[in-house]
Amino acid sequence: MAGARGLLAAAALLGFLQASSSFEVKDSSGKVCIIADLTVAFSVEYKSNGQKEFAHFFLPQNATVESQSSCGDGNKSHPILVLGFGAGHSLSLNFSEHADDYQVEELVFHYNLSDATLFHNSTAGEVKKVSHRTTIQAHMGTKYRCMNAKHINMKSVNVTFSNVTLEAYLTNGTFSTNKTECAEDMVSTTAIVPTTPKQTTSQVPTTSPAPTASPPNPAVGKYNVTGPNGTCVLAYMGLQLNITYQKKDQKMGLDLLNFIPQNTTSSGRCDNTSAFLNLTFEKTRVIFHFVLNASTEKYFLQGVNVSMTLPSEAKDPKFEAWNNSMSELRATVGNSYKCSAEENLQVTDKALVNLFNVQIQVFKIDGDKFGAVEECQLDENNMLIPIIVGAALAGLVLIVLIAYLIGRKRSHAGYQTI
Question: Is 9 part of a structural domain of the chain?
Fold first, then answer.
């Protein structure tokens, strides 16, 4: 997410940015089957005395390859890389193969809330587990390469990969010379020419396009849903879809679509505990499903459904993806949720819904106006950047001043009064 990228930028300014770490998995004969060179940043939500807190940390360079790591055993088991660190934390990359491709089929993160060094004043002491399918995929016999940040949202945990080079199912114990580039790198170097209302691009990860302009952010639209008691959903946001698909030639394509507000229709329905916002642009529809937790007086986005028609080069032009186990855009009933930073909602490993400058309120709305604002964590993190940098500069000035005064005092001490 943009907030995670902001934290990484602040760390770089202060000299704390983690270098990528390299890990290997070997079979019983000592032959290397998995190599992973990567940087991983974590953002974990937890409870401290009933209040919501966030812990931000990196995968340390002294993380160890755990004994559960394996090269796999044919059809019996798949390769797995398990990295352990700290007081009982672990990150697992579970690989699988299909046809001519291999992928990180599932990412699993275990974190120990009793570790006071990371989770200060945590009121829970258990080890928690989150998991998610990923879009980390490459052709067999190539290394997967992704310089840009790849964000994976897993309920209360956000994991950000960057500077990644990895390969599984190695045959010669070293990285292959050929590579498969990730969609994030392809998007950042791909021009999108708005010659038609639909802004879209299709790229093949095995080729390197010439560097051009980055794709534009979508325009912000205003959408609402009216229920029996008046407006029950009020939303301002820019909406973008990022869809990865298989082409007829078995290569991978990317469709990046910006919703144009004036060409987008909104509809929906709502009751006391559930609300749906349907947005349709051309032949593409996105449905947002919000729910109310009556016991906490909080509402949140629980589900997203995406359906669209892909470019003609797609192997299957009809695309649909859904995720009904989300917990995003959370706010108190009567208040609005606001986030200026880009938010990436991972629907599946093939579908991302990107939100820009979002402000939304569901259920209890006074007329057609937003209630009190609850800022997203990403915006709060971004506000920390100038504070951290300013504090670091102030500290540096103070150190220089103290050193100057000490040096001046010593120089005067070397002379005697006549």
Answer: no
In a domain, residue 100? The reply is yes
**Residue pLDDT, tens place only, 14-59:** 333 445 678 999 998 999 999 999 989 888 888 888 788 888 888 8
> Residue 201 corresponds to which amino acid?
T
Determine the Cα–Cα distance for residues 87 and 201; give it in Å rounded to an integer: 44
Task: Please tell me whether residues 168 and 198 are part of one structural domain.
Answer: no
Q: Say if residue 160 is in the same domain as residue 222.
A: no
Q: Which domain holds residue 88?
A: 16-181
- Whether residue 101 contacts residue 139, with contact meaning beta carbons closer than 8 Å, is answered with yes
Contacts of 141 (CB under 8 A, 6+ apart): 171, 176, 178
How do residues 116-159 score in pLDDT, each as one tens digit? Answer: 888 888 887 889 999 988 888 999 999 999 988 788 888 788 88
Distances from the Cα of 309 to the Cα of 268, 281, 403, angstroms: 21, 11, 66
**Cα 412 to Cα 418: distance, rounded to the nearest angstrom:** 14
pLDDT (0 to 100) of residue 10 = 41
Considering the domain boundaries, does residue 407 fall inside one? no
Please indicate, yes or no, whether residues 378 and 277 belong to a single structural domain of this protein. yes
Which helix (H) or strand (E) segment is 408 a member of? helix 377-413
